[in-house]
Amino acid sequence: MDAINGIVNAFRGNPFYFSAIFLLPLLLPVLASRVVSNRRANVREPWKLPNWKGIPLIGNTIEYLVNNSSFITRTALAMQTRDIVQFYLGPIRAYLVSGPQNVQALFRKSASVSADKFSLMTMDALMCYSKEDIAKFASDKTGRLAEAKEGAVAPDGTRYWFGMHHHMKTLSQITSTSVLTDKFLEFFDERVQVYPLGEPVTVNLYNFMRTQMAGAAIRALVGDALFARVGEENLLDAFWAYDSVVINLMYALPKWIDPKPWKIRARAYGMCLEWLKQDFDAVGSPESEENDVDWHPVMGLRFLREYLVWYKKVGLSDDARAGNFLGFLLGLNANTIPIAGWALMEIVQDRQLWRAVQEEAESAFEVNPGTGKRKLNIHKMMGLPILQSVYAETLRVHVSVNVTREVVGESASIAGYQLPRNSLIQAPTRIAHFNEKAWATADHSASEFWPYRHVKYANIQDENGEKTEKPEFVLAAGPNDFFPYGGGVSICPGRHFAKQEIMATIAVMVTTFEIEMVEWMSFDGKTKSDRPAQENAKYSGSASMPPDRDMKVRWIRRV
Ligand code: HEM
Ligand SMILES: *[C@@H]1O[C@H](CO)[C@@H](O)[C@H](O)[C@H]1NC(C)=O
Ligand SMILES: *[C@@H]1O[C@H](CO)[C@@H](O)[C@H](O)[C@H]1NC(C)=O
Ligand SMILES: *[C@@H]1O[C@H](CO)[C@@H](O)[C@H](O)[C@H]1NC(C)=O
């Protein structure tokens, strides 16, 4: 059986999932025969995770599906002394790995492990690709890299994975990133400057981020036509509703049992399709010289324009084009906004941190002597040590993603074991990012948010011989202990922009406003909450974890 397809079926579209408890016993003979054959083969195998509550064969599967946080807690404990753990997920052999070398092995260019099945899953569940579109990608075994995999031939002459990956890579290049950041800053600043100078205003901070940060980012990526066509408020409403059902679409019940997530997806998708057909495709010649600009009011960023034109050129359907665009909006906003939101909420609650970040950020602004206008110097900002540390610490603590790979070769060599074909390997950030051995300091355990964790003080001597301590940003553990953006060939192409956008948003907020917390609110901002925000567990494993409460603040615009 093909591992990730198996998972998809195990989670939805298959009676296995919703009556797992009743039907699982039918699988017992299959599982039991595996256990016996393994024993016979006498191969060296990684340590096996004991079954949850002692339920034979299927205990771990049940816990993985119904109580992911207790599963993680249990495996994290086991992984304090070992870096690979084996269990069964339904009928699929699965491994959890941790430790820098093993994580790196998953990210290495390799013919034996692949992330493609996971991408196919998102194309189907999240991005509305048609069956034909998915079949095209599925049958292209030539890989994402410029050089086709040995022996593989693209079925209809098109290398779909490579084409997609090639465009993704252009997003991560400096040219795309800097235009996107400049546009974002321009639009975000406009939205901040509407608040009256010197007057106190009460705002729900997280809701402000969800509307204004997302609004500015979408306009920076897409241009003006999308909001003009469907309305900004309408689009954002549909978008955040879609964001909240991503896990349901990927892992939950089939459409005919629970149609609601699919209706929500259809609404957001419909808006994307409308823009694509009515606006984007109506620009007769997207590739003409006059349209050859870095940012187009109808077609958006050069990267997006070239990407969507390529989709059409190689004969992928409008479903796939519009759906891919919708998936892109998710990539753009679903992770940066929770991270910027958490970071700001932490800064607002800690006056000393607030002053330190404000002072630092202030130093990255320049005033144009002609116009008197303030402008953030992105290059300077990217070097600010405390701001970088807050950024990294927020990602460490609030990203929960399972980097998932499938063994597609004969076997894959990880942690000194040969893992068999079709097995599934996961490296959850929740284990790596909370590893005490890698992250704890004498005073601050890994489980704590400690904004200065990645700041080191270097002793320097100035020309007068005076000694001072200069703060520097140094990630508190190695790069393979920290992978909020995934890694390897499928690493997040938006990571450079994400870092600039998050840091710039914080820099603009702390220098434009004086902000004071009033109280915690329910997430919809309507009622007072008697406890601070916690992560919304529903998003576990999907990347950034949003808060489940909002923070009501009072702010005064100072510049
Ligand atoms: C804090 C912010 C972000 C986090 C934590 C994050 C995380 C991730 C992760 C974990 C992946 C999967 C990587 C893998 O499979 O190894 C991913 C993929 C992706 N991200 Fe991000 N991301 C962020 C921001 C962004 C932004 C701002 C954009 C767009 C401008 C973006 C666009 C994408 C796209 C298009 C993919 C799919 C790439 C592919 O399939 O090859 N992300 N991201
Ligand atoms: C992520 O992995 C954990 C266990 O490692 C599991 O319980 C959870 O369901 C997974 N989440 C997703 C979205 O795959
Ligand atoms: C998950 O497991 C933990 C620890 O075993 C338990 O305290 C909690 O009640 C469980 N939650 C659910 C929803 O089953
Ligand atoms: C993880 O558990 C939370 C809370 O029990 C739940 O809402 C969420 O859907 C689960 N995630 C997955 C992927 O099963």
UniProtKB/TrEMBL annotation:
Instruction: Give the originating organism.
Output: Cercophora newfieldiana
Question: Which InterPro entries does the UniProt record give?
Answer: CYP450_sterol_14alpha_dmase (IPR050529), Cyt_P450 (IPR001128), Cyt_P450_E_grp-IV (IPR002403), Cyt_P450_sf (IPR036396)
Cofactor(s) the record lists: heme
Q: Which family does it belong to?
A: Belongs to the cytochrome P450 family.
Residues reported to bind heme = C492
Q: Which residues form the signal peptide?
A: 1-32
* Keyword list, A-Z: Heme, Iron, Metal-binding, Monooxygenase, Oxidoreductase, Signal
* Gene3D superfamilies linked: Cytochrome P450 (1.10.630.10)
Q: Name one GO molecular function term.
A: iron ion binding
- Name the record gives this protein: Cytochrome P450
Give positions of region: Disordered: 526-547
Q: Which domain of life is it from?
A: Eukaryota
- Entry annotated with the keyword Transport: no
